[in-house]
Amino acid sequence: MNTQKIGWIGLGNMGIPMAEQLIKADYAVTVYNRSKEKETALKAMGASVAETPKDLIAATDVVIVMVSDDSAIEQIFKGEDGLFTAETSGKIIINMSTVSPSISKEMAAFCKEKGSMYLDAPVSGSVKQAETAQLVIMAGGEETVFNQVKPVLEKMGKLAMRVGESGAGNSAKLAINSLLALYAQGLAETVMFANQQGIKTEDLLALINNAAIGNTFTKIKGDAIIANNYKAAFALKHIVKDLKLAKAEGISSPLAKTALETFEAASAEYGEEDIIAVIKQLKG
């Protein structure tokens, strides 16, 4: 068994399969989630359960956080029975959430004050990549800290790369998710145009996926469009959050502005569906 004790906070669509990879790799894993029923499957695999983030960090060496937004980070770190209410000296906290660079810089500074270490390490990839340990992980923080936990990160992804100081991982993720939004809208508009010209979606996707412009995204989301399956692997509401974060960090290009307008308009009706449900908004 690996000797590092891992704490995991946040058991959403991504958190569960990512934590499972660590259990399979023989790490001792302790989990915490506000909705306790989500802990059941991991407990059955051998994970321990903590009642609070404070209890979790006390029992572990490395804590990984995978939650939805900045406000959830504030609560987990600084709320009642949060991580910072415990003795954290010598602990490493890895924030794998897609959040703002500024919240990571703030939490990194708090960790330093308390004698602990912080990395922001968000991921590129969706549920399928989490289930197969094929995520791409981008980290911001001190190189020595990254090197200490790189073996842990590599159990969840095919690539773990440090891209700069605190907040850099979050900045890289916002850049990637901005491109993700453009891919989704571009694919949706392309399918719609082809359909208007009498070309079947299946035929168009066969052409795209055998051409230089085809990629994993066009294959997975093209299949979703063909099957009329918009169950969320990556919920549309989350790309709105990410585009807003990118805008706050200074992105102002024409395509980014258009994507934010499109996905904001789609979010009211299709926010809980997958990102490619934007095609339904564009069809009107």
What is this structure, in a nutshell?
This protein is 51% helix and 14% strand.
Secondary structure topology:
Elements: E1 5-9, H1 15-24, E2 28-32, H2 40-44, E3 48-49, H3 53-58, E4 62-65, H4 70-78, E5 92-95, H5 101-113, E6 117-120, E7 123-124, H6 127-131, E8 135-140, H7 143-153, E9 157-164, H8 168-196, H9 201-209, H10 216-227, H11 236-248, H12 254-270, H13 278-283
Parallel strand pairs: 1-2, 1-4, 2-3, 4-5, 5-6, 8-9
Antiparallel strand pairs: 7-8
Helix pairs in contact: 8-11, 8-12, 9-10, 11-12
Description:
The chain is 51% helix and 14% strand. It starts with a strand and ends with a helix. The strands form two sheets. Strands 3-2-1-4-5-6 form a six-stranded parallel beta sheet, sandwiched between helices. With 284 residues, it is an alpha/beta fold. It folds into two domains: 5-165, NAD(P)-binding Rossmann-like Domain (Rossmann fold), CATH 3.40.50; 172-283, N-(1-d-carboxylethyl)-l-norvaline Dehydrogenase, domain 2 (Orthogonal Bundle), CATH 1.10.1040.
